[in-house]
Design a protein that fits this description.
globular; alpha/beta; 39% helix; single chain; Aspartate Aminotransferase, domain 1; Aspartate Aminotransferase, domain 2; 3-stranded antiparallel sheet; 7-stranded mixed sheet; 12% strand; 400 residues; 2 domains
Length: 400
């Protein structure tokens, strides 16, 4: 009898974490490495949020809380959904978990049975397919091409739906591409979903506040209220509020689903960190001006990276609508050989040679379900980004 679960053979370790870990190890060994793999803001959590956490500690708010969130935070989340998304939820329709990842995992674990299919637009966040597999479901990938700016079409969605489809996972702006769906583009998708009442919508809105230019964020239940009763709208404080390590995610949805997710959480982690919950409460209810400041900073970095990468031979880098990622296409580099003698057979070989020969760490596109590409997280300083792009250009110039 094998000791380890057979499930492990079907699940891959996170490639983004692997790249970040390798970059850190090379730095510790003395290498000059610029890490562009981590999906987290490089600036600190706002001071008022940190102060709220300190007050919570001083006031003894360090005990167990309700399994899926303190009442005050749930009330604040209800207010956020109503003000920013036009969605009305009661506190018993809200769940708070240990990061957005746990929210998604709880939802899938609470609902998926063997044979259930979950539609995942690709390129996708690396964890989506593996969480579906862990929950016993079957991931069904639908690929958004470079020509369509990495977004899927209504016809593609329609063709992917079967009687076994249980969920459609929607992420806009996207990790890894930064692509965002306009109101009209999302309405075309929700029109398809209206025709298939067995399909639920899991909307990952984690990058809601990080949108650029004139792009307007929207979420499925907002665009099509008829889908409200079968939509789980998920979000969190990690990205917009620079609180990745605090591990607070949340969602609003139908009472019976929220209750089922609470049951899963009660037998896994129980409540999220009490101090982090009070910090998140301050984040949602305190001053919001820094969101505008940070958005402008990220837009400047996006423009810098896109402009520089598009000067690299063999690379095409679309301008994304949001998040803090770009997803360059490297079709023009495939089949060539690097200055260090490495044959660039695919995007994983490209990323590996780039790190070895230039010290720039990126995540290869196959990890996100679309090749040949790589993901750059521009959540680091302008100086580091400019130097990294110069090294990438030099690497591409050297391909023969």
């Amino acid at each position: 009898m094998a000791f380890l679960s057979d499930t492990l053979a079907r699940v891959k370790p996170s490639p983004t974490i692997a790249v970040t870990t390798k970059a850190q190890e090379l730095k510790a060994a003395g290498r000059d490495v610029i890490g562009l793999g981590a999906g987290e803001p490089d600036f600190d959590t706002p001071q008022n949020i940190k102060d709220a956490a300190k007050r919570a500690i001083d006031e003894g708010k360090t005990k167990y809380t309700a399994v899926d969130g303190i009442p005050e935070l749930k009330k604040a989340i209800c207010a956020k959904f109503l003000k920013e998304n036009g969605l009305t939820y009661a506190p018993n329709q809200i769940t708070v978990g240990t990061g957005g990842k746990q929210i998604l995992y709880n939802a899938l674990m609470a609902t998926c049975n063997p044979g259930d299919e979950v539609i995942i637009p690709a390129p996708y966040w690396v964890s989506y397919p593996d969480m579906v597999v862990l929950a016993g479901g079957t991931p069904v990938e639908v690929v958004g091409t470079l020509e369509n700016r990495f977004k899927i079409t209504p016809d593609q969605l329609e063709a992917a739906i079967t009687p076994r489809t249980k969920w459609f996972i929607f992420n806009s702006p996207s990790n890894p591409t930064g692509a965002g769906y306009t109101w009209d583009e999302l309405k075309a998708l929700t029109d398809v979903l209206l025709r298939h009442p067995q399909v639920w919508i899991l909307s990952d809105d984690m990058y809601e506040h990080l949108v650029f230019d004139d792009f307007k964020f929207c979420t499925p239940a907002e665009v099509e209220p008829k889908l409200y009763d079968r939509t789980l709208t998920t979000n969190g404080v990690s990205k917009s509020y620079a609180m990745t390590g605090w591990r607070i995610g949340y969602a609003g949805g139908p009472v019976h689903l929220i209750k089922a997710m609470g049951t899963i959480q009660s037998q896994s982690t129980s409540n999220p960190c009490s101090v982090s919950q009070y910090a998140a409460l301050e984040g949602l209810t305190g001053p919001q001006e820094f969101l505008t400041t940070n958005k402008a900073l990220f837009q400047r970095r996006r423009d810098l990276v896109v402009s520089m990468l598009n000067t690299c031979p063999g690379i095409t880098c679309p301008t994304p609508e949001g998040a803090f990622y770009v997803y360059p296409d490297i079709s023009g580099c495939i089949g060539k050989t690097s200055a260090g003698g490495v044959k660039i057979e695919n995007d994983e070989a490209f990323a590996s040679a780039l790190l070895d020969e230039t010290g720039v760490a990126v995540v290869f596109g196959a990890a996100f379900g679309l090749s040949p590409n790589f993901r750059v997280s521009y959540a680091t300083s302008d100086a580091a980004l400019a130097e990294a792009c110069r090294r990438i250009k030099s690497f591409c110039d050297g391909l023969k």
